[in-house]
Amino acid sequence: MATEAVYIRRRIILAVILLALLWLIGLGIGAGVRKALRWNENRIRFSKIRMLQGRLQPGQVLFDAIVEMDISREAAAEIVSAVGKILDLRSLQVRDEFSLFLNEDGRIEKLIYERSPIDQYFVVRGEFGELHAFRPAIFLKKETITKEITIESSLFEAMLKAGEKDSLVFDFVDIFAWDIDFYTYPRVGDRIKIYVEKYFKDGEFVKYGRILAAQYIGRQTFDAVYFEPRNNQPGYYGLDGKPTEKFFLKTPLKFTGRITSYFGWRRDPFTHRHGRHRGVDFASYYGAPIVATSDGIVAFTGWNGPYGRMVRVRHANGYDTYYGHCSKILAANGQKVRQGQTIATVGSTGRSTGPHCHYEIRLRGANLNPLQFNQPKKNPLKGKDLEDFKAYSKKVWRNIEGNKS
């Protein structure tokens, strides 16, 4: 009798377990069916989607651009409010592109706002009509390539002819800006070599990465390899381990500074007397940017007799630089400025025969020739850093020496 009771209890327990399993399976099937139905509904809904594409025009805000596409003001305000949670609407640029996706009822289901191929903003309508704004993850493919280019007319034209963008020119120039005046130095037949990172999205070029190594071959040869030492500043170093960065830039103008008067004795164009010219004159167009040639603090801005509108910057170690004949001054007294920062624009104020920048360097009051003086040296690599650099640069430099394109 006891044995029979145990048997019956076991059968009941098994039956309960079986019913529970069937119930759970039913739930799973039901969820799967509901998910499938929802997917089908979405498929039907989005199969009738209509896409509109637009681009911001001068003086236009996103709200107006959307309304001009025959979208109601209420719908435009809703979608703009959503994207405004992740995008500063004050920073939008002319010719930014956007796409709207509308269902068959004309309701906006999705917005894609694209500032660039790698700067995109999405707004998507959820299952219950709510809007979700987010930035999608964008994955780029990186390639490293070597370019060897011969200058036939100008550095810009040579780079563009080789299929590269002008932004690569600026990156290259910045590496050697302390040694080369790229307006006056390059000659036809000079060569440049660049080992650089390039990023692609869906096979399309997006942007340049870092220039890993570079070389300029002209009357002199200049080499540079990017390196991040443990005990020194990351940056570009020559093959000897000395930094390419110097205390002063070669010129206060980029690409536009044709030298019209050198340092030393000359005949003054106003007085017609022979005298000492205390700086170098770089001719350019009105409004061309004038940059500080070294870090420092602005010590004077204003009118200074024959110099016209002038900026003086005080630097470390007793150096001062002067920038004369400016049309506009863009720095203030006491302001800290960085090397390469725009501080004024080219003009012809004061005793001047045409638009140019009169540039002086003084050391404790004594004038120096800006084109020929022993400027302070940056710290070279030493010890283990130098040892690591030589091993690394040897490996990287093979790409400069061995590849042509």
Description:
The chain is an alpha+beta fold. Helices cover 25% and strands 34% of the residues. Strands 11, 14, 15, 16, 17, 18, 19, 20, 21 and 22 form a 10-stranded antiparallel β-sheet that branches. β21 and β22 (366-368) form a beta hairpin.
Q: How do the SSEs run, as a string of H and E?
A: HEHHEEEEEHHEEEEEEEEEEEEEEEEH
Structure class: alpha+beta
Annotated CATH topology of the largest domain: Glucose Permease (Domain IIA)
CATH architecture of the largest domain: Distorted Sandwich
Number of helical regions: 6
The total tally of domains equals: 3
Specify the overall morphology: extended
Radius of gyration: 33 Å
Number of strands: 22
* Helix-residue proportion: 10-25%
CATH class of the largest domain: Mainly Beta
Distance between the termini: 96 Å
Stretches where pLDDT falls below 50 for ≥5 residues? 32-37
CATH superfamily of the largest domain: Glucose Permease (Domain IIA)
Tell me, rounded to a whole number, the average pLDDT: 84
Beta strand %: 25-35%
Largest sheet, described in full? 10 strands, antiparallel
